[in-house]
Each structure stands twice: as C-alpha cells, then as structure tokens.
Amino acid sequence: MTSDLTAGSAAKRQVDPRMIQMLTPEGERVSSGEYDAFAAELTTQDLFGFYRDMVLVRRVDAEGNALQRQGQLGLWAPCQGQEAAQIGLGRALRPQDFVFPTYREHGLAWTRGIDPVQLLGMFRGQTHGGWDPQENRFHTYTIVIGSQVLHATGYGMGIQLDGDVGTGDLERDSIAVACFGDGASSQGDVSEGLTFAGAFNAPVLFYCQNNQWAISEPTDVQTPAPLFTRGRGFGVPGIRVDGNDVLASYAVARASADSIRAGNGPMLIEAFTYRMGAHTTADDPTRYRSGAETEAWAAKDPIARVRRYLLNEGVSKDEFAAVDAEADQLAARIRAACVEMQAPEVASLFAHVYREPHSLVEAEREEYLAYLDSFADADGRG
User: Fold this and answer.
1) Whole-number Å distance between alpha carbons of 81 and 194
2) Residue-level pLDDT, tens digit, the chain, 382 residues
3) Which of 68, 79, 88, 366 is 20 to 30 Å from the Cα of 19, by its Cα?
4) What are the residues whose beta carbons fall under 8 Å from the beta carbon of 107, sequence distance 6 or more?
C-alpha cells in the first residue's frame, strides 16, 4: 500500500482525486493501482458470492416494495441500484466492526447476518428493530437524517479510549462505520461527526452513498464541491469509488478500514451510485427526474456488470440459475413470514436497552407487566 493510505497523521493523509473503478459497466476488469492488491485476494468464487449477495438483496428489496403496495407494510425504502456499494463495504468489514446504518442499508444488514424478515417487521410497524446490536454489530435503522453519524463517531471515540485500535491484533482492532447519503451530508450532525472524529483521530469510516438525489434534490444543487472532499477541512481525507462496482467498493473499503484500524485516523468514502427506485414508497420519482437519466444509469447496473465479468471467467449459467432459484425461495419465505407475522411479546420492548442487565430497566419491565396483568379478569384472560 502507498503512504497516503498508511501515513500516521492527518497532515500526510491525502485526498485521492480519482474515482476508483475495477469493473467497467461492460464487465471488463481495469487496473486501479494500489487497490489491485486487495482485489487479487479474491477468487472467482468470492466474487460470485458477492453476486449472489446482490441478487438476493435485490429480491428482498423487490418483495418489500410489493408488500407495501399490497398493504402489508406501512413504508419501504428501496435500495435498488445501490447493492454493490453496500455488499462491497459489508464484505470488507470484520466481525468486530460496528455499523451505524440509515434506513436503506438492506444490503449491509444482509452481510451482518440480519434476517430480512426482521427488516420487514420494522416497516410493518411491529418491532423497533428486533435484533441485538451487540451480537450483529449492526445498529438499528435510523430515520432521523444524519443522527447516526454522531452515534458512530461517539462509538469510535470509545473504541479509541478502550485501546482497541492500532494494536496490530486483527481480532481486536476495530472501527465504527457511519453510513449516510448525499442529502444527509448537508446536515449539521455529519459536520459535527467529522469535527470530533478529525480532532480526536477516532477510528471512524464515514461512508456516503451518493445516489444523486436527496429525495427530489439533486446533488449539484446541494453542494458545489464533490462530496468526497467534504471531510478535508476537518482533517478527514476522502476518496470516491464507483459505487456500482462491487469489486472496487470492496477494495477501497477494505484498504480504508485497514488503515483506520491501524490507528491512522478517520476516512471518508463517497460511493458514487444511483437510486433506481423511489426515495421511499411514499415518493414518485417521475415528478423530478427524467426517464433518460434513469435509463443511462440502468446501463451501469451493478449486478449486470459483475455477471458479465463472471461469465467471461467461466461461471456457468446453471450456477446463475441456482442463485435465481434461491432468490425465489427467499422471497417466498419472507413474504409468508411477513403476512403471518405476530406482534412481538410486550416484554421484548425492554430488551437490548443496555448491553448489560440494568436494575432500572428490570424494575420498569416488572412494573409494566404487572400493570398489564391488572387488566386480566378472574379467569386470567386479558
């Protein structure tokens, strides 16, 4: 790796002006300089695994859209088009890293072991999360725009204070990942997170998925400068990667995360991608963007390009067909689970409030359950 990725001070960490790409939209492999070393570690089957991830996540996404239209979900936030940016990042992380998502990180949730049924339960309004953030190292979805960046930065500062960065121990050194979009980059929370991370040299990876639209506001209206340069004034170097290229997204995320874990301070990645669908199912994108623009980005589809590459590498059509069949099975499973979903146990509301048991939470739990029991009739029925 070159010195701009491993330098130990903010003064030496430089902004890379390029957009890193390794697979063209036609599926051709191109060189990316120092990042090629990370791609070289992957086999064809590894990359086929990324392809499988993306296909399955896209199918989950499509099912979420359909279920909302059929009245089974209150809302759904599509991620179609952003699968490579999310899978590339997710597969570059280590188990001890902690991810702080927005409300669209279905691909990242997949890589952290979250069952898609749990995501559907959130958008169905029957749970506030339902998973243990400490077990998966994946925080619950955040709807307040940009607030998760502060959470990630605070967690990263805690990692540093605990001495879990820069030790050289691959199973100990860890980072916090702050996910946000181009629209959220205009929020004060993001600037505050960059301020503290830069000042305290906190191990935070700021990961901006620039999908070109903050609901109906295009990026060029939001900012006159490229988003990957946003951290420069805070002492946080940035890099732009082709977010529709899963190989480049993996390599850049891997290199950046390794550098941060080594104690070299925070970094910012702008994954340059595109939201093919609506902002949410409450949105109509045809009111603010043209069909020609969408078609132009469809030609850069992240799944299609890696499929073309894999076909040239000898992956058989039967192997692709097996992934499609698996996607069908996944869709059927999560649809049935969503439609048949029962409300969670009331007591689960008090789970995962703190990492360790807490006497106050336990007391409130017992008090509330006793209150509910007081409504039972003499036969014990509610």
Assistant:
1) 27
2) 333 333 333 333 344 568 999 999 999 999 999 999 999 999 999 999 999 999 999 999 999 999 999 999 999 999 999 999 999 999 999 999 999 999 999 999 999 999 999 999 999 998 877 788 888 999 999 999 999 999 999 999 999 999 999 999 999 999 999 999 999 999 999 999 999 999 999 999 999 999 999 999 999 898 889 999 999 999 999 999 999 999 999 999 999 999 999 999 999 999 999 999 999 999 999 999 999 999 999 999 999 999 999 999 999 999 999 999 999 999 999 999 999 998 888 888 888 788 889 999 999 999 999 999 998 764 555 4
3) 79
4) 53, 54, 57, 79, 82, 83, 85, 86, 87, 90
Half-sphere exposure of 221 (CA within 13 A, CB side): 8
> 184 is written with which tokens?
């959220």
Domains in the chain: boundaries: 3-339, 345-382
Cα(92)–Cα(256) distance, integer angstroms: 10
List the catalytic residues: 275, 279, 288
Rounded CA gap, 224 and 180, in Å?
Answer: 19
Distance CA 289, CA 254 (A): 34
Collapsing DSSP states into helix, strand and coil, what is residue 97? coil
Q: What is the DSSP letter of 351?
A: T
- Domain spanning 3-339: which superfamily? Thiamin diphosphate (ThDP)-binding fold, Pyr/PP domains (3.40.50.970)
- SS3 call for 99: strand
CB atoms closer than 10 angstroms to residue 115? 15
The whole-angstrom separation of Cα 65 and Cα 277 is: 10
| Length reported for the chain | 382
Give the gyration radius of the chain's Cα atoms. 22
CA distances from 103 to 75, 150, 374 (A): 11, 16, 37
